[in-house]
Design goal:
Blueprint: E1 14-16, E2 21-22, H1 24-27, E3 31-36, H2 43-54, H3 56-60, E4 64-70, H4 74-84, E5 89-92, E6 105-110, E7 113-118, E8 121-125, E9 131-135, H5 143-156
Parallel strand pairs: 3-4, 4-5
Antiparallel strand pairs: 1-2, 1-5, 3-8, 6-7, 8-9
Length: 157
């Protein structure tokens, strides 16, 4: 179980793809799906982003919003959004100011080698800014469906 569960989203101040500064205060009032991914326009990250895109209406039907977060620049995010027609915002965290406190940056295995980088993870944050569910080390296939199912279950309880 993640030590983040039941705790507020760590404090942060990051720019989104439009250059707008986003803080935890901006996320309050709605459920938020915050997903950390390694790199814009790479195969797994594109699949995950497009799955969130294709299921956004289902996420929004539960009153939730989606934000992606990676170390990529604002310009990279803009290109990724345009190329994949992504209807949600992407946060740029080049210094890992939020990724590290979330445990979404660190040592991981990639192609049989240990490297340091973003660990694909997703966080479900309630309207008060409290982390209610964590998916560490996400496998892309079926992940968005699991997020929607968990979100629906959280709202029933």
């Amino acid at each position: 179980m993640s030590p983040l569960l039941g705790h507020p989203l760590p404090d942060f101040s990051l720019q989104d793809d439009q250059g707008t500064v986003v803080t935890p205060k901006d996320l309050k009032g709605r459920w938020t799906v915050l997903y950390a991914y390694p790199k814009d326009s790479t195969p797994g990250c594109t699949t995950e982003a497009c799955d969130f895109r294709d299921n956004l209406a289902r996420v929004q039907a539960h009153g939730a919003q989606v934000y992606g977060i990676s170390r990529d620049s604002q310009k990279s995010h803009l290109n990724f959004i345009a190329k994949q027609n992504l209807p949600f915002r992407l946060l740029s965290d080049p210094e890992c100011a939020l990724l590290k406190p979330l445990g979404a940056f660190g040592r991981k295995m990639m192609y049989g080698k240990e490297v340091e980088g973003i660990i694909r993870s997703t966080f479900l944050v309630d309207p008060k800014g409290i982390i209610r569910h964590v998916w560490p080390k996400v496998s892309v296939k079926g992940h968005v469906a699991d997020v929607i199912e968990t979100l629906a279950g959280m709202q029933k309880s």
